[in-house]
Design goal:
The protein contains 20 helices and no strands. With 505 residues, the chain is mainly alpha-helical. The chain has three domains: 7-217, no CATH class; 237-377, no CATH class; 402-503.
């Protein structure tokens, strides 16, 4: 049976949050904080490991926390916080079948969580004894002051004049408080307050009743709705809609067949690079094709939203719909091949990696649309399975140390692909061992680059790149030993070990 999480847990968690994260980078502290959250949810029976979403999101939270420590990936850290939020939402509404509804529950829980907190404070205050007087003063002074300070911080960031005026005021207040209480680390207190806000959002509140009703009404299987209206004296409106859909999909199939044929000829097998930037070929062309695939899915969903699924003579329509979806998969593969050509000549970058995973999500989406047509299924079925697939794809993306992969790949392929120093110099510190190159090695790369890429002279020189990387290495090697052990992660540790070892030779 679910148990209420006591308010003291929130204050204990806020103190722990400040200890773990104040003036520290994400590392072991994130893994420890995950352990605290998971422990609270287990102790107060908010997680049921027979529940599908509870299992998936718990695994997602723990895996992303582990890979945050291993790879120090920003995406892994983001997915960890997202997994925590989604898991807490699933704990509030265990019956949910959709991550989309979990997101909606958590968005509205910004209000429900704090409402529950203040209601429970009132209940404590009404109990007899001396201790409730503490909560009275919390309500009268501490909470209003905390809210005022939050808004002061917002206004200081928005107005330089208010910032200047408030800065002097707070300096005076700080001096007075320091003379009374001694040195106080106000940033530590601010970090604790941030942790408290996050924990209230995470652990308190309830599932919105409208979202719960919407979830309970939603079905995976589509059922037929009777419609006896006559359409302009002809058999039925359904037959007219069927003919319109058939005509449209046949026409779109023929157009897409021409596009795919040209792509197979020119992109799959006949592509030849002639030294151009490939901007239109990849950037503009890729996103337009992806946009067309999404519109294609929307058109299919529109026509197969209701009774056309049950029309007795809809076999021809289903065939052309399948054909169009298969052609869209071919189109997605063409987009992927365009992207691979781009990587072949211009090396790896975050957006090019993102396109690969995005195409994977699109192909999953197209396949689920085909399942919807064949069964038939509802739009809710599509939303919940595609939301889950997107979550898993992003989770897996966070498992990789992309900065290191990009740096290593781009220099390994410097003989055939453009090495963009301007981009590489901004990669994370964990990639520094792969980014560090000797001057003579960079000069050899320059000779290859200028010979193949006429535009190479428009970008950062290898000499400037060498100086910038050396500056970053010196700063990193000097700063790393001062980091707190709670900020430890393997990616940065390994980079420091390799760089300091080389410098010691």
């Amino acid at each position: 049976m679910r148990r209420n999480i006591p308010l003291w847990i929130l204050f204990l968690g806020a103190i722990l949050f400040a200890i773990l994260f104040h003036m520290k980078q994400a590392g072991l502290n994130l893994l420890l904080f995950n352990g605290f959250i998971l422990g609270v949810l287990l102790i107060y029976k908010r997680i049921n490991f027979r529940n599908f979403h509870h299992v998936i999101l718990t695994m997602g939270m723990l895996l992303s926390a582990v890979f945050s420590v291993l790879t120090n990936s920003g995406l892994a850290i983001f997915m960890n916080y997202l997994s925590m939020i989604l898991l807490s939402a699933a704990a509030m509404f265990p019956e949910t079948r959709s991550i989309i509804h979990l997101i909606g529950i958590k968005v509205l829980n910004v209000f429900y969580g704090f409402r529950e907190f203040f209601l429970r404070l009132r209940q404590v205050d009404e109990k007899p004894g001396k201790f409730p007087k503490f909560w009275k003063w919390v309500k009268i002074l501490v909470i209003p002051i905390a809210i005022i300070l939050i808004f002061v911080a917002i206004y200081r960031g928005a107005s330089p004049w208010f910032d200047e005026m408030a800065g002097g005021f707070f300096e005076t207040i700080g001096n007075v408080l320091t003379s009374i209480f001694g040195e106080i680390d106000w940033w530590w207190i601010a970090t604790a307050m941030l942790g408290w806000l996050f924990l209230v959002f995470l652990l308190l509140g309830k599932a919105n009743s409208d979202i719960v009703k919407s979830e309970m009404k939603a079905k995976d299987v589509l059922f037929r709705r009777r419609n006896n209206r006559i359409y302009r004296g002809r058999k039925t409106a359904l037959k007219a809609e069927y003919r319109g859909a058939l005509f449209l999909l046949i026409g779109l199939n023929l157009i897409l067949l021409m596009v795919n044929s040209l792509d197979v000829i020119n992109v799959w097998f006949g592509f030849e690079w002639e030294g151009e930037y490939l901007k239109q070929f990849v950037h503009e062309g890729t996103w337009l094709l992806i946009f067309s695939i999404l519109i294609s899915i929307a058109i299919i969903l529109f026509y197969f939203r209701r009774n056309l699924n049950f029309y007795p003579k809809n076999k021809a329509l289903k065939i052309v719909a399948y054909a169009w979806m298969i052609q869209n998969i071919v189109l997605a593969v063409s987009v992927l091949i365009r992207n691979m050509h781009y990587i072949d000549y211009f090396n790896l970058a975050y957006k090019r990696i993102g396109v690969i995973f995005f195409i994977l999500a699109v192909i999953v989406g197209v396949i689920t649309v085909m399942i919807k047509i064949s069964k038939p299924k509802t739009a809710f079925f599509l939303l919940r399975y595609n939301a889950l697939s997107i979550y898993l794809i992003f989770l897996i993306m966070g498992f990789f140390n992309w900065d290191v992969i990009i740096a290593r790949h781009n220099f390994d392929h410097s003989e055939t692909a453009f090495v963009h120093y301007d981009y590489l110099v901004n990669l994370d510190e964990k990639a520094l061992p792969c980014l560090e190159k000797e001057r003579d090695e960079l000069q050899k790369i320059d000779e290859l680059q200028v010979g193949q890429f006429d535009f190479a002279l428009n970008y950062m020189s290898s000499e400037l790149y060498y100086c910038r990387i050396q500056e970053k290495i010196d700063a990193f090697v000097e700063e790393y030993p001062e980091r707190h052990w709670l900020s430890w992660n393997y990616a940065d540790f390994n980079a420091y070990r390799m760089l300091s070892g080389e410098s010691g030779k």
